[in-house]
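Thread: Newbie trying to understand structure tokens

Hi all, I'm a second-year student working on a class project, and my supervisor (Dr. K.) asked me to get a predicted structure for one chain before our next meeting. I've only ever worked with sequences, so writing a 3D structure as a token string is new to me. If someone could post the tokens and maybe explain what I'm looking at, I'd be very grateful. Here's the chain:
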Amino acid sequence: MNNSWTPTRRGFLGLAAAATAGLALTACGTATNTPGGGSTNKSSTTGTGAKPIRTGASADTFFIAGFQWGPPTSFSPINASPAFGAALNTFDIMFEQLVHFNQLDGKIEPCLAKELKQTDTGFELPLQDTIKWSDGTDLTADDVLYTFEIAKKAQVSFSSFWTYVDKVEAKDRTIVITLKKDPFNPLIVKDMLCTVPILPKAYYGKLSDADLTKDANLKPVGSGPYMLDKYDATQVIFKRNDDWWGNDVFGKPAPTAIVHPIFKANNDGDLQLEAGQLDGSQQFTAQIWKMWEDKKKPVGTYLKEKPYYLPGAMPSLIFNVAKKGLDNVGVRKAIAYAINYGDIASKAMSDYSDEMQASIVLPKGSEEKYFDKAAVEKSGWKFDKEKAVKILEEELKCKKGSDGIYSLPDGTRLGPWKLQTPTGWTDWNTSCEIIAKSCKDIGIDVQTNFPQAATMIDAMQNGNFDLVHYSYASVGSATPWQRFRDYLGDEGVAPVGQRAFWNYGRFKNADVTALLKQAAAETDEAKAKEIYGKLDEIFRTNVPAIPVMYRPSQFYEFNQGTWTNFPTEANPYAPPTWKGAGRKFLWNIKKVGA
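---
Reply by user tm_fold:
Sure, no problem. This is what the structure looks like when written as tokens:
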């Protein structure tokens, strides 16, 4: 089971051919005049003379899109296809975690638990003094223990919890987690404590083990500040729980309701964000800066200037290192120099990505302390066609055929190799086309192929591919360790023909397992950086994959026509994400004109 605890996502992209009718605009109210003073990409309270774009009841509602692309079928977080409000790692308004991770500083923040205390043997999490489910019953330590017991009963995304945990106990209102000594990995367990939603035993405990992941839970009882009100094929509506247990701890959320309209395509959401009928969006919006620079709309992102979003993930070109030709590290390194990363950043990512650097560590945010710029500059790669050709001709002694494609000295032709990513993932499709052209320009035959997502992911996990464009772990409390495991670690990876959940290319290196174990257990920041440096050097030396763009873990876009005071780089009270620690915006935003 995947212990990366990052679901197959991309809900923000137009995979919604099956999605039905879009937003019923009457639910959004009537547009009035925009806030005074025009618009810039900043999150400051608009003057008291301004009027909100929406009026009436809809002015008290927060409208968001980009998470739900079809009619809801389940509101159970452990179901195969949970809807907005229940889907993991999306927007924690109905089910809550014990603690939250803040990607800005790497700190762990309270939620159902007051704190996360690491001990010599594991973790201690004292629960808040009073916690209630939305039906008024108490949320107890027994609910917490039962939630993690589910991982023993059914195949869920946190089933690997018990790979690293010996036992979970309750001492009064404190949850005590004892880790296994082998394998010892507090990092991955901490990540799960930040992401696993606590579920009510009163409901799930009545289900058979076989039904745990099948049940749709269409009348969910959660612990969060909002409760499911109604839903249909056009929208999902949540109402504020005015008796929420957290009102006295965190404050009462400002919006009285949260509505997620269900659009047919990204363009519908873009138009509604621009018009102020959406307050927030989590979808890829090309050239979003034009909304405030050209159209003078009160739209913003976390960063005022390019790349507008904080990096959170590294979509990569992943090699099947067992394929003849691609098993040659020199060929992989030539491709690393051949790729036009600047084109990918500008054309595929609308300048939402800085040009990639040859490291598995994110250069900004909570991972910046582990990023070694000097090492990257010394042994890394960058776009350099001449260098790529030099590797092929002088180092590998390749010969170019009459068709312009090189072959290795043993006659192995460098292609044709199929580069796959799911159809409809438009930015990744564009990135693949740029990669294929870059390879062709230096004499390597790479051809793109965009199958349906399920088909492509199945082939990738089973090792049935040449090259794929996909992403490993996004930023979290276990990164960069988790990302190094995903790129380099072969322990626990199934052989080709069986499903793997990381290291899809089946790369192997004798030093990686020991280094990963050292890094997982290391608490000294300087020593951890040294270990990560060794792993990063293995990555640059062997090139099992090539990160090609930086991407936010979630797109964080807002319109300040009705609500203002969103977190930004200049106002960083919360990270730029709708999930976890990012949900603090709900009790900090203010009504325009208030």
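A couple of things are worth pointing out once you decode it. DSSP finds 16 helices and 22 strands in the chain. The first strand starts at residue 61 and ends at 65. Feel free to ask follow-ups in this thread.
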